[in-house]
Specification:
2 domains; Rossmann fold; alpha/beta; binds nicotinamide-adenine-dinucleotide; seven-stranded mixed sheet; six-stranded mixed sheet; 13 strands
Length: about 375
């Protein structure tokens, strides 16, 4: 039993498969709003406690995204670099069989660290239902993450925040950390809507041009040379990106990039958290104290999980983009209307708690 509070945890399933040696855990935190939805990671040092924390976070993220999903997460203890593709598939299939009783009523899986659309296809295949997971390849009825739902959602949330301030994106300057799936699509859409992206970074450093960077040029340079820093502009350290004089800062790659050591140098007025946990709450509070508008990660980067929901409904890509837009706009607005003392994270968490509590009361789980 792992009762934490009135919300969870509902179920913690630790499994071991003697034949393959597979060990894993599936944690279901709360299913009041629907089946627990959360990714399935494959890492050698995954712990039940880590998966519990991630499952709980998914309850609030899915509720804030206003999806009929609860929160859950899975971890498989394995080092994919030491497995052949066949062994990796055997491990995935063994895990699927061990947790089949909770799928899809209480748990719907999805890709996470070291699991891709291929593993999702195998997972669904093993259980004989496409409802077992999302993030499947398009060829087996999935909505691939290459469509850019998360970056699109980050851009929508940012535009909504700008409009809420009574301003327009037109001419606003932006710096984006990371030029992967999330960073590229965030740049594409913000640029299309009139913002001027002046800095972008990857693991090799930052490229900066105060007159604006060109999206197509950067995509070409990244594909040809492997780094955005080979493009036209001033080359700076990766960490310098967070201190540039821009209107909007998008941390979109790693955790804890804004910390007590550099928060005093952040000049942006809006921070759109595309990555997970790019700043701890106490660091966010320093920013909020200066009047910075922080779009918390679990609000701004929910485009991916909203796309997952669309996949479970069998909707096409156009419908998915419309749903991501509608939900991100409404939820961002609601959070901003409810925000007191610039504490957007508290406002969003309050909304998520209310939505889950309401579902629990309706079901008779809570007075
Ligand atoms: P990705 O692997 O596609 O891209 C990551 C990018 O970060 C790469 O361009 C890489 O060069 C860059 N990077 C690595 N080290 C860096 C450094 N030191 N400085 C600057 N850039 C660096 O990953 P992604 O899917 O774009 O995910 C990025 C973040 O967003 C992660 O925190 C992820 O958990 C989060 N996220 C992603 C999704 C999604 O749907 N992809 C959804 C929610 C949250």
């Amino acid at each position: 039993m792992r009762r934490e509070d009135e919300y969870g945890f509902e179920k913690i399933i630790e499994v071991y498969d003697q034949k393959t040696g597979m060990q894993g855990v599936c944690v279901i935190h709360n299913t009041a709003r629907g089946p627990g939805k959360g990714g399935m990671r494959m890492v050698p040092d995954v712990t039940t406690e880590e998966v519990m924390g991630l499952a709980r976070a998914m309850t609030w993220k899915n509720a804030m995204a206003d999806l009929p999903f609860g929160g859950a997460k899975s971890g498989i203890k394995a080092d994919p670099r030491k497995l052949t593709p066949e062994q990796k598939e055997m491990v995935m299939r063994a895990f699927a069989r061990k947790i089949k009783d909770v799928i899809p009523g209480q748990y719907i899986a999805g890709p996470d660290m070291n699991t891709t659309e291929k593993e999702m296809a195998q997972f669904a295949d093993e259980l004989g239902t496409p409802m077992a997971c999302t993030g499947k390849p398009a060829s087996v009825g999935g909505l691939p993450h290459e469509l850019g739902s998360t970056g699109f959602g980050v851009a929508i949330s940012t535009r909504t925040a700008v409009e809420h301030m009574g301003k327009s994106l037109n001419g606003m300057t932006v710096a984006i950390e990371g030029f992967g799936n999330v960073g590229t699509f965030t740049m594409k859409f913000l640029t299309e809507w009139g913002a001027k992206v002046v800095a972008v970074s990857d693991s090799k450093g930052t490229i900066y041009d105060k007159n604006g960077l060109n999206y197509e040029d950067l995509m070409k340079i990244k594909a040809e040379k492997g780094t955005v820093t080979a493009g036209k502009g001033e080359k700076l350290d990766a960490a310098k990106l967070f201190e540039l004089p821009v209107d909007i800062l998008v941390p979109g790659a790693r955790p804890d990039v804004i910390h007590m050591g550099n928060v005093g140098n952040v000049k942006a007025k809006i921070i759109a958290e595309a990555a997970n946990l790019p700043a701890k709450y106490d660091v966010e509070k320093v920013l909020m104290g200066k009047g910075v508008l922080v779009l918390p990660d679990f609000v701004a980067n929910a485009g991916g999980v909203i796309s997952s929901y669309c996949e479970t409904q069998g909707w096409d890509a156009d419908t998915m983009f419309r749903v991501v837009e509608g939900k991100l706009r409404n939820n961002t607005k609601l959070m901003l209307e409810r925000t007191k003392d610039h504490d957007t994270r508290k406002a969003a968490l309050d909304i998520a708690h209310e939505r889950v509590s309401d579902a629990m009361r309706m079901r008779g789980w809570m007075k």
